[in-house]
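Aim 2, interim progress: modelling of the S-adenosyl-L-homocysteine-bound target.
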Amino acid sequence: MARADDIQPISPIGMTLEAFVAACADEGVGAGRAKDAYQAVYRDGIEHAAPAQITPPTIVKRHEEPVNEGVTIKFVQRLPNPEHRLKHRGIDFDDIESVIIPMIGRSGRKTHTLCVSSQVGCAMGCDFCETAQMGLIRSLSAAEIVGQWWAACHLEGIEIDNIVFMGMGEPLDNLDEVLSAIECLTDRSGASIPMANITISTVGRVDGLERIKEQVQKPGWKRLGLALSLNASNDESRSQLMPINNKWNMKDLQRILQELRVVRGGRKIMIEYVLIPGVNDSLTNADELADWMSPFLKDPTRKKAKGHGGLLNVIPYNPRRDSPWPAPTEEQVDRFVDRLVSHGVFVNRRRTKGRDTMAACGQLGTAEIRKRQIVPLTSSSQRD
Ligand code: SAH
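Predicted structure of the complex, ligand included:
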């Protein structure tokens, strides 16, 4: 058996314990030693515990903003990218953003949610979203996704209770790596985040949701949280805001959501709705939205319908840079929410956290990143 110190170090970040033990076995290191090293990295935040060694994340920017529940922390990590398309200009790295959001749970306990990025930039092109303005630079590996958790826990020193894939990127555009990252994050020997505390949020790529439908039928995956960014109440408006709607429309989404609910034992899928004044906030929009949600207001797997059943998250629009629209006023949000409630829709009104730091929903994608890497989407030089 090789001495752990003699072998080539292996980074366990992004690996399950099982995968790490197998990699160590290839080097002649026993399972017990490998497990200790894995736990030292994940639980104790140790960077070098032979045979495990990690490259510690480089945080190049961080910003704190006090909120009622505590402090929202946005941190920007610099990842090496030797293949960068602007390498000829001396750029061989990507910057990605993550946000730690404090919350007070129903029991009054304070928890922390980590909002992770799954891509550098995004290809989906949603009109209201800051990240979309960057275009897609590249997708992140499972290790780079898990690295955001490691940085939050062991560099920022915050215990993370929940993880949401609501940072930069479209997770279903990078599903293999996202699923591997989740497998790793839920590993009981490592990060040990319960599956029910992880949520994937999507623009509504139905092909990806079909794959999720298969995935959640595998042991341990049923409780994975899902969120759909609907953001509009009819196809015309949704296609204008979100180009993906030209491929899969609101009827397609209704169908796959129903199927998902059945295979997930009636679990709810959160519907997100970014409320943009003058765009999707009229009372007619509220009526249409309630109508679209009506199939979800009953639970198909239970004989007795349980109360409201649907879960809608109304997110007041956070103006992106150069936004043509303002944020909604409290009254505008109230009016919209009240109308939905009158239709029996259970509405969760999300308070905006981190708007000032551009760390709020859809505001990830720093101006510096954009200036450096972004050229107009239509330009042929985009992929040079
Ligand atoms: N691509 C995924 C995850 C990233 S966006 C998705 O679309 O779900 C995470 C959430 O932020 C989505 O619900 C999105 O609709 C919302 N969002 C995007 N831009 C926003 C903005 N400017 N203001 C408020 N919410 C925004």
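Confidence is low (pLDDT under 50) at residues 303-309, 366-384. The pocket of S-adenosyl-L-homocysteine is lined by residues 128-129, 166, 170, 201-203, 229, 231, 272, 274, 315, 317-318, 320, 361-363 (CB under 6 Å).
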